[in-house]
Design goal:
CATH superfamily of chain A: Metal-dependent hydrolases
Order of helices and strands of chain A: EHHEHHEHEHHEHEHEHHEHH
CATH architecture of chain A: Alpha-Beta Barrel
Oligomer: heterodimer
Shape of chain B: globular
Number of strands of chain B: 10
Number of helices of chain B: 3
Radius of gyration of chain A: 17 Å
Structural class of chain B: alpha+beta
Order of helices and strands of chain B: EEHEEHEEHEEEE
Radius of gyration of chain B: 17 Å
Distance between the termini of chain A: 12 Å
Number of domains of chain A: 1
CATH architecture of chain B: Sandwich
Distance between the termini of chain B: 5 Å
Shape of chain A: globular
CATH class of chain B: Mainly Beta
Number of strands of chain A: 8
Helix content of chain A: 40-55%
Chain lengths: ~280, ~140
């Protein structure tokens, strides 16, 4: 079994019914020339990589854009359609006056499973005081946090607001909350690895996209940017599989991971065990 | 002279798959009533193919494995990079090259209302970049 911890459901047909909103979402998230896909086709695509559970990550920069590109209600709608497969994350734009209430609604009423934030897109520091209300809600409801970390390909996103080292204070202040810094914080891979080594609550995922095909980028990150044995000897419990679909097809991302030939024990952890621990679920 | 076009949908179950479409072509020839002419089968995509071969599971497997040897997945293709026009990473260079190798169309005579196809031959839609919703055209000219 594989759990994909990084899917943006921008092209999931059940939430693409409004053509104008769909186009605006694609423009803001920087997805182009792609069509919506229905759930049965998506399940086939996930099945190619043996993916049985999927984290659905929202997108909310509504202070600037007016409405969330992928709202909490969109995520809840998808989870309701496939409750055994989809694990929905919530978001809110902390610059909105009612942001904390919206996040609490997503946890309490919509029963979403965690918080997703892209501080690069929001252009605010992870230590911005407005975000502490969010972090405290995660503590109150026992929810993990997924932060976009490193370069963001979304429109109007600045990587300086998502540098891995800048999340250290949150890891330090909230040791009881599991926190994922996505994309191995690329290109700041070593900063991410250092945080993974030190903080028990720090996680990352393999949502690598940027230069090269999957074979080359996985080798570069996990065999060159990191020491050859760092994963097996240090951080095997901290890495989760994530594809970054729709920027890269999940089956291709998994092929890149396969090419690293990690031990079977490590692969089980990366494939699904670490994701279950991250969510606070027993495996 | 008649000119008749049909667009069919197809969706593979696997990432790489040969899907037999011979009966769909024969059915459309019968539907048109065209007795003598020519029939084209054309894929609309650049990471798929249309080809003819013998419909044995072992042969189908050899065809796909042979293409994999010619066009390996892990080669550092030029297409493997960030594509600003899509916002995605180009990852389907092998599909484009396999499409080049098989071509995207086949053509056959229609004589006395029958598709002129060798006794061991079947027509395949070749998926090299699945799974996606795909389309191919059957175009018949004749009378």
């Amino acid at each position: 079994m594989v759990i994909d911890t990084h899917v943006r459901p921008a092209l999931f047909a059940p939430i693409c019914e409004n053509g104008e909103a769909f186009q605006k979402r694609c423009d803001n998230m920087n997805y182009h020339l792609m069509k919506p896909a229905n759930i049965s086709l998506l399940k086939k695509q996930f099945g190619l990589a043996d993916i049985q559970k999927v984290f659905l990550l929202p997108s909310d920069c509504s202070y600037h854009t007016g409405t969330a590109e992928i709202s909490n209600d969109d995520i809840a709608k998808l989870v309701e359609l496939e409750p055994d497969m989809f694990i929905g994350f919530a978001s809110a734009d902390p610059r909105n006056r009612n942001a904390a209430q919206e996040l609490e609604r997503a946890f309490a009423d919509l029963k979403l499973s965690g918080l997703y934030l892209n501080t690069a897109r929001l252009q605010i520091s992870p230590e911005d005081e407005r975000l502490y209300a969010f972090y405290n809600l995660c503590r109150k409801y026992g929810k993990p946090i997924i932060f976009h970390a490193g370069l963001s390909l979304e429109t109007n996103a600045l990587a300086k607001y998502a540098r891995p080292a800048d999340f250290e204070k949150i890891l330090y202040d909230y040791p009881d909350i599991n926190i994922c810094l996505t994309h191995v914080g690329w290109p700041w891979v070593q900063e991410t690895a250092a945080l993974l080594m030190k903080y028990p609550n720090a996680y990352t995922n393999t949502a690598l996209m940027s230069f090269d095909g999957p074979y080359q980028i996985f080798h570069k990150v996990f065999r060159e940017d990191m020491g050859e044995l760092w994963v097996e000897h240090n951080i095997a419990d901290k890495i989760m599989f994530g594809s970054d679909s729709p920027r890269i097809r999940p089956v291709r991302s998994k092929r890149g991971l396969d090419s690293l030939n990690f031990t079977e024990e490590t692969r089980e952890k990366i494939d699904y065990r670490n994701a279950l621990h991250f969510l606070g679920r027993e495996d | 002279m008649q000119f008749r076009l049909k667009e069919n949908s197809v969706c593979a179950e696997k990432e790489f798959e040969l899907i037999k479409i011979t009966s769909e072509v024969r059915d459309f020839i019968a539907e048109t009533g065209i007795r003598n002419g020519i029939c084209y089968i054309i894929s609309e995509h650049t990471t798929t193919g249309i080809t003819v071969n013998e419909s044995l599971p072992c042969v189908e497997k050899d065809l796909l494995e042979g293409l994999d040897r010619l066009v390996p997945e892990d080669y550092p293709y030029n297409h493997n990079h960030y594509l600003p026009t899509y916002g995605t990473i180009g990852g389907n260079a092998p599909g484009h090259l396999k499409s080049l190798l098989t071509g995207i169309c086949s053509v056959f005579p229609v004589v006395n209302g029958e598709l002129m196809l060798g006794h061991a031959a079947d027509i395949y839609f070749c998926e090299y970049d699945g799974v996606k919703n795909r389309h191919y055209m059957i175009y018949i000219m004749g009378e």
